[in-house]
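User: quick one, fold this
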Amino acid sequence: MACDKTTAASQRKKRNPQRIWRSIGAVALGIAALMVWNGVNTVGLPAVVFWLYWAVMLTALLVALVVAWIDVRYIRLQYLLERRAIFLQTLGHPEFRSQLLHSTTAVENIPAGEKPRSDA
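Assistant:
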């Protein structure tokens, strides 16, 4: 029972970086959306405040877009790593490769015009 508590505690301490940057992106996108929604009220403000308001909104939007771009690249990297791991577990396994090499050399040694035997 004590092992279960320590495992759960260590898993809680270990934060997923993808979850963190997705939260940052969601907050940035929410801020940008609220600022756009409230943008109608910026018409009568002084020019400096007006431009500062929209600069903050654009910055929040850019942060959300960069986070989305990073997330897509991270997902692509995870996909490629998993694909490589599956390849190494199956076709890249040394035993499989040696059997494949043995079977191809056996087929190449068959004289022309003769059908290969079926061991099944």
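User: anything notable?
Assistant: Residues 12-107 form one domain.
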